[in-house]
């Protein structure tokens, strides 16, 4: 019984770490800094299609988090900047891309309040 309890606790801690602990070395960027980066850096928009369509970003590769596992090879460069709708989405994508060999330079969380509606 104790082994089962410890296994559940370890799984909960692992999933909490994946979702809520920020990724080391990935810094927050302002909206002005998104477009100042060099041409080798790709802007990856992780938001859902319905949000990114209404609030499109120039030069951004729209690749929602749900499709990232299948289509991460479509990212043309090893250097990326993430645009997410919340911090959980940002943390999951940054960890995934870092494990696949991409250099995540930074992120920008674009929430509903920053969108011009």
UniProtKB/TrEMBL annotation:
Gene3D superfamilies found in the cross-reference section:
Rhodanese-like domain
| Stored InterPro entries | Rhodanese-like_dom_sf
The name this protein goes by in its record? Rhodanese-related sulfurtransferase
Which species is the source of this protein?
Virgibacillus chiguensis
